[in-house]
Amino acid sequence: MGSFSGDLQPSNDRGHLLTEQPNPRSSELDQLQTDDLVGLFIEEDRRPQQAVEGASRELTVAVDGIASRLRRGGRLYYLGAGTSGRLGVLDAAECPPTFCSDPEMVQGVLAGGAPALLRSSEGLEDLETAGRDDLDALGFCAEDCLVGIAAGGTTPYVRGGLAYAKAIGALAIAMACVPSDQAPLPCDIDIRLLTGPELLTGSTRLKAGTATKMALNILSTAVMVRLGKVYGNRMVDVSASNSKLVDRSLRILRDLAGVERDAGLTLLKQSDGSVKLALLMAAGQLGVDDAVSLLQAHDQQLRAALRACGSELQVGL
User: Fold this and answer.
1) Which one of 101, 181, 184, 205 has the minimum C-beta count within 10 Å?
2) Hey, what domains does the chain have and what are their CATH numbers?
3) Is there a catalytic annotation at residue 125?
């Protein structure tokens, strides 16, 4: 049986939204042969990349705005419901192991909280005050950044959160998959990922979800690059906390600083698993205390710290 409640009332008709319109290419979706069905999905899944490319200017402004606030101690929050919210939680959860960032730096806020990760609780997205309440409970403040994610652009939970962010002077960034004139959102930066109608009408976990995941990947990774957590194309702020990451850390030390395995293990032990610190110690012939001080003096930017001690690393393929 379904979960329809007689207390629920329909909102204004959303049939005009791009994400709710039927896709003419899939009008006979249930009658396609399997190879044609798969081929159609593959063709349509080229659209998310085009949609992200179309939002490149807004993504650029967002990256610089977020990085600026995070440098000053602010935090980045993703806010959403359903698929959109889960994608935000996923991106936030992947930042600490990838960039050794403080778990408080990037946070995902999902309507319904942790239980909604495993069991859908879409009805909670209808509460506009809940977005504000959830942010407030986490200490969200004017120094922070909010990315409100709503594929259709009409989610009250997200709208309420964005309005709250703007009201207190935080950086408010909207991310939606419909044109702004169909669903305006209160924000400072408006990212629109126009993927078009879904093959399965209204199922925004498909192209809209793919484009959202791509855009979030760009946002978080580019912000971390700006914060100095990457050297060349290596994630030098990784922490060697398990066997896979120890192996990756040793390869980074070998590739960038010419450090062989045994010496690399010694450096990682001295640096408490910090690859960035181990690289600076190796390239600058520094003890751990001097390397820590040099990084602190240069805002944790490895390249600037290396230049200060007249050293450099070799970035190959």
Assistant:
1) 181
2) 29-226 (3.40.50.10490), 243-308 (1.10.8.1080)
3) yes
